[in-house]
């Protein structure tokens, strides 16, 4: 049998060799898609992804505003039930996990793996942006894949790393990135990004400062952790010693947003208008809560009309989870009558996408100063934060505002300084990077009076998200047990 | 080209020569079988001429002939008998049955073989069985007729698409559809669907890889060999016309509640698309906006009561008219068949139309020991259907129909273009979704395509026992179309909640060409007195090329002008090209021992362009054995058993990749370039650097038996398939930075049984009853995937999806489930009383455990009544539509507790970890709406339904006008049929939504369907066939 087959095979091969040449089959080069591209073509796409996840509808900022009592839902929509129910299932906002790894980090990793000293700047930018995303992942999920992540086919099922270990490694990554930028300055022929760097347009010093601001975010987030203060102090000292300083302008991404299909700023595209200038449904659907309007009004906050659009009939918010929209008055909460997202947040189709506000940087510095890690004056930092927030929104009267004798507004009037910092940070990231305020709430409990949704059957809001269903399917052997999302806090909040 | 034309001309000339008649006497008589039963449709031809006729229903015939002419009486399955015309004008003939199982069948590459030498199982379906109900697509007419075959429908519109599966799914990521071969050349599902079914002579189904091994990789899923009509058996010259006209109407819509109407949270709301209002009370209530004074329309008032058939009335009765004009004929050494066909269809969706013209020329000519053949088919079609991205939410039409509350008289809103009509955008009652009539008028896809499938072959009989055949086939086509949507803005006072709809125009073109060339040398010789050999040596080559391009623009400037020049902003442009080449050589030896034992050894060596050059060729063998017991031991042929054959075969087939898949690539990112700034993203698919071919091994055991003089036949097969190194898009953790990983993994094991029983139950003068029953049972189990990976996602939205899971049947459905205690009771939340959303749980397989098909034909005199039905069971499907309808409050479930809070039946509360106490008093929360739209709707298990279905697919009543009535007319036969398709469907009570056969995709993601298709339909009408 075997012999017959072998003979047959030999005969056939001879027949083929006589008839066909090798090059005949040489047609498998993809004419539609390149197999390698230069880093200046990779970076702007990665930045655009980062901006998208932060700013798009049902992105990071959106969730933060829903969880932290800022945004609610107008009549005529039934869009935010899951948010109001705190229905944190594996599919709830799984985009934060799935898109971060599967789209964003994948793209940045493509820069980090470039071989050659001339790519040092791109590698450093990649490390910095990866660190920013990994921190958000840890703050949202706790333990996540890190050391074995992003190897694509090389490791299809990465293991999960301890959250605190990842935190420490991120600080090191940022240190490495700064050193790499320094070293690359001396490399002849090193590539310096230009327009493709939609953050700093190739200003590598600013990248160093941004790296330090990210360290600041990481260090402050775990600053209440028992036994960590020595480490934190060492790290702050190292930042001081390195000397680049912190980034105290808004860190933004803009790769050339314009009023063109698929080229609008993602927040404007989702919450503002479509390219034809028509308000989106999400714009109609989303509005203020009475809670946030009351707080802004009662503290004479000049940011009120910029955070929320003022209807002709005056500001009106909808309680989260309201079901009886038409009671007692029919159509009282239709989009035209409620305070939708305001002009300080929705500026236009070409507005910058913000990934780290100057206000937040100042409030982080204020907290670090308050806790004695840095020498800055906490009050100055606090007030600079408020000013930066007013500036971003286009509001005036910051100094009059923080001069008021109102707790959590005026520094002197605030007996609990940390509460004042966190409450102001909540306002400083509201509508911009609001997920940060949810992390701070989980850590500090401030602002302490954010009401629960009417639909909630739980004693408190979630303190983490559930691991996504994609991981249940694709990485079940490594996936840790799902934690109780209402009680199992991230390590820095314990 | 010139040579080709000359050949065609030569062939035609040959046919036109012999159409002359002399003065003759009329011979009449009767043709019967050995039991005295009349043989209907037996061919009576005058040998050496082109004159012929056929017997009528009583077996009677009449033919004009000269004394001394030889009349040749033939009938399929019977031995041909020649009788010389003498002085008598009456000749009665009794034909003796052939052993039917010794008939010659068409196998791979058009090679004809005696059926008893086949070492595998194949099943043929003839033209008559196919055409009973005048289908527009041959594939749909195969359903229920062939054991081992499953036909799935992706869309049931005016131009339906289907998927043909033989023996289930063997590969997780790769194509599992059967190979289509038309007239010996590899074609495609598209070419099969484009065929005019009237042109089909027969379809031979090679069910397993063992049968199709000579086709190589392409045939790992079995093959459908289509032979079109040649004119060879039709006598001298024949012209015929077949006309069929069928009506199509909605068979059934989902069963909805009709107790509650328009509203939200129990409160009446005149502009809602949802049914969460108060209970119907029959009072006159406002619907739609309140119109200001002096507005041309009165504010609309309708009774708050359900409108019967309010959705059904939206749909039209569709109509399909098919005409085929054909001519065929044969004379010594030459034959031809040509046809012109036209199909004109209007659909159940208003304004949906489809038109198709088909042209076929088949011809053959024998010149000495060389036979030339041509088979050619040109098809042009044109289609206009409603778009599938309607409104500001890009929904399909069915969505808008379903989002109509029970108290809305939908069919009254067809006046969408009249600013003073209630159907007009600003006046429409629904504040959230658009008027479906508006959608039909403003969202269109208009497309057309043309296709040429042709092959020419030359067969040279080098000697009595040696033949060389070469064939060149081409399947080429191109198509294009335009998809457009008009913009719609709304008056802010009348429609404050409506979001404007943006406009777009998408223009696309595509073309493809597939060439195949084959060359086969075959020879027969005897090794010893008892052993003979048939040997084949062949080579084949296939080149596939395709190209498609799309230009899409948005926000057009001039309303109603749908050209891409009219767009604003940056057009989105894409062009895709691909080429795949492969060639193979094969040999095939069949050793026959004393004409009852046959050993078949074959092998094929394949070369492909899509695998890395070091690893792009592979050899695979086939071995089979056939034993005809009744020939070996004639003594076992007694009164009962007339034929017995067993077969055993094994083959290995390797599969390659699609083009360009062996490299990771980048693609231009959406929105780029931003000005001069271009950007590329790394695609989500990671590729294993050591990617190689996948292997499918099949073993088949078959029995073919006949009893009672072939009145009862039984064909049975048992097979095992084992697929390893499956080329699979596995699902890595997204944290790997890849969303899919193309690699070789695991093992899928399949097994199944097929049984076909055919027989004549009753046979008497003027009456006969034939029944064919086929049974198919198939299961595919995933044995392993890879280290650390237990499942692969085929498709999933995170809440429901199709998966390949180790140890489970493939494909497997998973959905979010109820959290249950160890006893299976539903765990409720102590605070709300609501059940809780559990993890994704296995819900069952999505292909049937078994399919039972039955065709029954009753003949009485000149009437013939036949029916085909099938029953599928043992699988589940996900009712996407009823999931969507939960939100709108139209589901039957949403009124099951009268919209009150209720204690969830048989539920428990977890009082402390692991302790479950029956819940007798905590009711669910917000039974008036939120329980249903939130909690119940989150548990997708609720929408996974038993996919069992019993369908009467075809019913036909045919009447043949007796031959003696037609004697004095030029007409030779007239057949009139009353036909029905899908007249009846039985579904289990829990599936009150749609046809579980519907699928959104023609990939391996079988089992998800519902609202992307139109509702299921039934057709009925008549057909007439007249021959001259």
What does this structure look like?
The complex is a heterodimer of chains A (494) and B (1028). Chain A has helices at residues 2-19, 39-55, 60-67, 81-85, 95-112, 120-141, 163-184, 204-221, 229-242, 266-272, 281-285, 290-298, 304-307, 358-370, 378-393, 398-402, 417-429, 435-444, 469-474, and strands at residues 71-73, 144-145, 160-161, 251-253, 286-288, 353-356. With 494 residues, chain A is mainly α. Chain A has a domain at 41-246 and 349-479: Serine Threonine Protein Phosphatase 5, Tetratricopeptide repeat, CATH 1.25.40.390. A two-stranded antiparallel ribbon of chain A has the order 1-5. A two-stranded antiparallel ribbon of chain A has the order 2-3. In chain A, strands 4-6 form a two-stranded antiparallel sheet. In chain A, α6 (120-141) runs antiparallel to α7 (163-184) and α14 runs antiparallel to α17 (417-429). Chain A starts with a helix and ends in a 20-residue tail after the last helix. The model of chain A has no long low-confidence stretch (mean pLDDT 94). Chain B is mostly beta strands and 1028 residues long. Among the domains of chain B are: 2-98, Sandwich (Immunoglobulin-like); 260-301 and 398-431, no CATH class. Chain B is built from eleven helices and 55 strands. In chain B, a hairpin with a 2-residue loop joins β24 (353-367) and β25. At the A-B interface, α1, α2, α4, α5 and β2 of A face β29, β30, β31, β32 and β35 of B.
């Amino acid at each position: 049998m075997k012999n017959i087959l072998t003979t047959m095979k030999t005969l056939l091969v001879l027949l083929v060799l006589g008839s066909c040449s090798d090059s005949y089959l040489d047609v498998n080069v993809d004419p539609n898609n390149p197999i390698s591209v230069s880093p200046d073509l990779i970076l702007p796409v990665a930045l655009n992804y980062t901006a998208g996840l932060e700013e798009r509808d049902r992105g990071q900022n959106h969730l933060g505003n829903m969880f932290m009592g800022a945004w609610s839902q107008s009549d005529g929509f039934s869009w935010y039930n899951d948010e109001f129910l705190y229905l944190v299932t594996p599919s709830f906002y799984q985009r934060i996990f799935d898109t971060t790894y599967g789209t964003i980090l994948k793209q940045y990793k493509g820069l980090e793996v470039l071989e050659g000293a001339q790519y040092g700047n791109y590698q450093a930018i990649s490390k910095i942006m990866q660190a920013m995303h990994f921190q958000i992942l840890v703050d949202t999920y706790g333990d996540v894949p890190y050391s074995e992540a992003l190897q694509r086919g090389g490791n299809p099922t990465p293991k999960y790393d301890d959250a605190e270990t990842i935190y420490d490694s991120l600080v090191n990554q940022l240190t490495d990135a700064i050193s790499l930028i320094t070293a690359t300055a001396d490399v002849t022929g090193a590539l310096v990004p230009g327009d493709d760097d939609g953050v700093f347009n190739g200003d590598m010093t600013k990248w160093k400062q941004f790296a330090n601001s990210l360290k600041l975010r990481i260090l402050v987030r775990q600053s209440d952790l028992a036994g960590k203060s020595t480490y934190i102090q060492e790290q702050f000292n190292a930042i001081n010693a390195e000397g680049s300083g912190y980034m105290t302008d808004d860190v933004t991404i803009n790769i050339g947003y314009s009023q063109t299909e698929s080229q609008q700023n993602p927040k404007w595209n989702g919450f503002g208008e479509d390219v034809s200038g028509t308000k989106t449904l999400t714009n109609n659907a989303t509005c203020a809560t009475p809670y946030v309007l009351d707080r802004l009004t009662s503290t004479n906050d000049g940011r009120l009309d910029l955070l929320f659009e003022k209807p002709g009939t005056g500001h009106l918010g909808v309680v989260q989870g309201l079901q009886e929209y038409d009671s007692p008055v029919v159509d009282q909460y239709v989009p035209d009558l409620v305070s939708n997202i305001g002009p300080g947040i929705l500026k236009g189709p070409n507005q910058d996408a913000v990934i780290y506000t100057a206000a937040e940087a100042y409030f982080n510095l204020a907290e670090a100063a308050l806790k004695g890690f840095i020498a800055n004056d906490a009050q100055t930092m606090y007030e600079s934060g408020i000013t930066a927030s007013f500036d971003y929104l286009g509001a005036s009267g910051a100094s009059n505002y923080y001069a008021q004798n109102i707790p959590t507004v005026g520094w002197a009037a605030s007996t609990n300084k940390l509460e004042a910092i966190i409450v102001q940070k909540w306002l400083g990231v509201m509508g911009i990077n609001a997920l940060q305020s949810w992390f701070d709430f989980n850590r500090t409990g401030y602002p302490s009076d954010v009401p629960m949704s009417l639909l909630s059957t739980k004693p408190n809001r979630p303190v983490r998200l559930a691991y996504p269903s994609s991981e249940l399917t694709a990485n079940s052997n490594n996936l840790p047990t799902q934690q109780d999302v209402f009680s199992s806090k991230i390590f820095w909040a314990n | 080209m010139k040579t080709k034309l000359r050949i065609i001309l030569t062939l035609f000339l040959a046919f036109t020569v012999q159409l002359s008649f002399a003065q003759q006497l009329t011979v009449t008589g009767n043709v019967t079988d050995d039991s005295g039963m009349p043989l209907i449709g037996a061919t009576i031809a005058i040998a050496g001429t082109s004159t012929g006729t056929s017997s009528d229903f009583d077996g009677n015939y009449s033919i004009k002939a000269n004394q001394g002419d030889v009349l040749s009486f033939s009938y399929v399955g019977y031995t041909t008998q020649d009788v010389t015309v003498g002085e008598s004008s009456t000749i009665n003939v009794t034909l003796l049955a052939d052993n039917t199982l010794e008939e010659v069948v068409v196998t791979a590459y058009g090679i004809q073989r005696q059926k008893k030498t086949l070492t595998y199982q194949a099943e043929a379906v003839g033209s008559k069985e196919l055409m009973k109900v005048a289908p527009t697509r041959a594939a749909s007419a195969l359903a229920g007729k062939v054991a081992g075959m499953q036909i799935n429908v992706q869309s049931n519109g005016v131009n339906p698409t289907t998927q043909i599966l033989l023996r289930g799914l063997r590969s997780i990521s790769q194509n599992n559809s059967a190979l289509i071969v038309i007239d010996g050349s590899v074609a495609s599902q598209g070419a099969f669907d484009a065929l005019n079914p009237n042109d089909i002579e027969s379809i031979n189904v090679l069910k397993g890889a063992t049968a199709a091994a000579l086709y190589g990789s392409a045939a790992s899923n079995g093959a459908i060999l289509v032979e079109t009509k040649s004119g060879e058996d039709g006598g001298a010259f024949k012209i015929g016309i077949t006309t069929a006209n069928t009506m199509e109407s909605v068979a059934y819509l989902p069963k909805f509640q009709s107790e509650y109407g328009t509203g939200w949270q129990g409160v009446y709301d005149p502009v809602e698309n949802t049914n969460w209002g108060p209970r119907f009370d029959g009072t006159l209530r406002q619907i739609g906006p309140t119109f200001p004074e002096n507005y041309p329309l009165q504010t609309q008032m309708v009774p708050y009561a359900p409108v019967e058939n309010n959705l059904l009335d939206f749909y039209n009765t569709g109509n399909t008219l098919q005409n085929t004009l054909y001519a065929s004929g044969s004379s010594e050494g030459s034959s031809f068949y040509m046809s012109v066909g036209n199909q004109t269809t209007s659909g159940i969706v208003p304004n949906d139309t489809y038109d198709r013209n088909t042209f076929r020329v088949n011809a053959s000519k024998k010149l000495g020991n060389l036979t030339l053949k041509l088979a050619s088919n040109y098809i042009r079609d044109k289609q206009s259907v409603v778009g599938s991205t309607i409104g500001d939410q890009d929904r399909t039409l069915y969505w808008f129909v379903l989002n109509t509350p029970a108290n809305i008289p939908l069919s009254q809103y067809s006046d969408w273009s009249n600013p003073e009509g209630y159907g007009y955008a600003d006046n429409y009652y629904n504040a959230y979704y658009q008027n479906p009539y508006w959608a039909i008028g403003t969202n269109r896809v208009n497309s057309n395509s043309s296709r040429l499938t042709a092959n020419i072959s030359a067969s040279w009989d080098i000697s009595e026992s040696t033949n060389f055949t070469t064939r060149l086939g081409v399947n080429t086509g191109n198509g294009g179309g335009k998809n457009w949507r008009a913009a719609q803005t709304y008056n802010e006072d009348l429609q404050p909640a409506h979001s404007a709809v943006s406009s777009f125009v998408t223009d696309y073109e595509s073309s493809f060409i597939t060439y195949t060339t084959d060359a086969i040398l075959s020879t027969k010789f005897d090794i010893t007195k008892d052993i003979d050999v048939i040997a084949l040596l062949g080579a084949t080559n296939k080149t596939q090329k395709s190209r498609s391009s799309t230009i899409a623009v948005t926000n057009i400037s001039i309303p109603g002008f749908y050209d891409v020049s009219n767009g604003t902003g940056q057009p989105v442009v894409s062009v895709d090209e691909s080429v795949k080449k492969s060639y193979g050589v094969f040999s095939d030896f069949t050793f026959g021992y004393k004409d009852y034992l046959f050993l078949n050894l074959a092998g094929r060596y394949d070369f492909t362009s899509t695998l890395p050059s070091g690893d792009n060729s592979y050899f695979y063998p086939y071995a089979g054995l056939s034993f005809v017991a009744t020939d070996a031991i004639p003594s076992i042929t007694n009164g009962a058993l007339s034929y017995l054959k067993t077969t055993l075969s094994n083959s290995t087939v390797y599969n390659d990749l699609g083009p360009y898949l062996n490299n990771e690539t980048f693609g231009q990112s959406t929105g780029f370039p931003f000005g001069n700034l271009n950007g590329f993203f790394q695609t989500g698919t990671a590729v294993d650097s050591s990617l190689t071919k996948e292997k499918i091994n099949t073993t088949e055991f078959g029995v073919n038996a006949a009893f009672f003089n072939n009145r009862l036949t039984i064909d049975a097969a048992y097979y095992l398939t084992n697929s390893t190194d499956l080329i699979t898009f596995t699902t890595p953790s997204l944290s790997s930075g890849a969303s899919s990983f193309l690699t070789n993994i695991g093992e899928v094991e399949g097994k199944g049984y097929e049984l076909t029983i055919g027989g004549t139950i009753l046979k008497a003068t003027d009456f006969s009853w034939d029944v064919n029953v086929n049974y198919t049972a198939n299961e595919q189990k995933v044995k392993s995937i890879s280290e650390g990976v237990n499942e692969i996602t085929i498709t999933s939205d995170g809440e429901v999806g199709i998966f390949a899971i180790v140890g489970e049947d493939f494909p497997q459905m998973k959905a979010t489930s109820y959290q249950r205690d160890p006893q299976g009771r539903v765990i409720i939340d102590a605070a709300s009383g609501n059940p809780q959303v559990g993890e994704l749980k296995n819900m069952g397989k999505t292909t049937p455990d078994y399919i039972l098909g039955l065709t029954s034909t009753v003949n009485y005199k000149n009437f013939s009544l036949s029916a085909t039905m099938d029953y599928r069971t043992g699988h589940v499907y996900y009712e996407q539509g009823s999931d969507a309808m939960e939100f709108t409050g139209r589901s039957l479930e949403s009124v099951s507790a009268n919209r009150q809070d209720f204690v969830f039946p048989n539920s428990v509360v977890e009082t402390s970890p692991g302790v479950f106490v029956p819940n007798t008093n905590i009711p669910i929360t917000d039974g008036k709406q939120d329980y249903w739209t939130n909690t119940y709707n989150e548990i997708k298990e609720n929408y996974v339904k038993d996919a069992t279905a019993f369908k009467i697919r075809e019913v036909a009543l045919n009447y043949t006008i007796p031959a003696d009535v037609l004697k004095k007319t030029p007409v030779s036969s007239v057949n009139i049929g009353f036909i029905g398709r899908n007249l009846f469907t039985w579904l289990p009570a829990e599936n009150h939504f749609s046809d579980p056969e519907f699928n959104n995709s023609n990939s391996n993601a079988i089992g998800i369907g519902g609202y992307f298709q139109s509702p299921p339909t039934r057709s009925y009408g008549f057909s007439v066939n007249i021959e001259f």
